[in-house]
Amino acid sequence: MKAICIGFTLSLMLTLVQKGLCFDEGGANIEHQWSEGFIGKFSITPGPTLSNGWNMIVTFSQPIKILEVWQAKIQMQNKQNTVFVLENQSWNTLLEEGKKFEFNFKATKRGRGNPHVVEVAVGRTEHLKGLSC
Q: Where's the CBM2 domain (predicted)?
């Protein structure tokens, strides 16, 4: 497992470090872009740490107007709409260790340019309870 620092606000990053929080790496692939948005897939290859719920922290290079995901809930996002914390749905809390789990997303852009996913990290749900962006 590799520890990853995420581009949250400084106070949230310090809270994560103080809690000794480690994340498994996740991934993202943008499959198609158009002038107003893009679609893609997030992926998780869970280790033993994801046996009872999970969160995925996704950092985009530019603000996202709307992020739609169907196999996760958006738990929180920062004020700039560049960092989103996704949480498992009730029916996909348990992920099989070592088996890749992928799910689709759709994003609506805010402004011009082609945003991309800068970083994805995955951790256990209880580590992020009560934190805010």
A: 30-120
Helix (H, G, I), strand (E, B) or coil at 82: coil
> Taking 60 as the threshold, does the pLDDT of residue 53 lie above it?
yes
Q: Is 75 in contact with 86 (CB distance < 8 Å)?
A: yes
Instruction: Say how far apart CA 73 and CA 93 lie, in whole Å.
Output: 12
| Domains of the chain and any CATH numbers | 29-123 (2.60.40.290)
Beta bridge partners of 68: 106
In this structure, are residues 88 and 54 in contact, taking their beta carbons and an 8 Å threshold?
yes
Residues 6+ apart with CB under 8 A from 73: 86, 87, 88, 89
pTM summary value = 0.74
Reduced to 3 states (helix: H, G, I; strand: E, B; else coil), residue 51 is coil
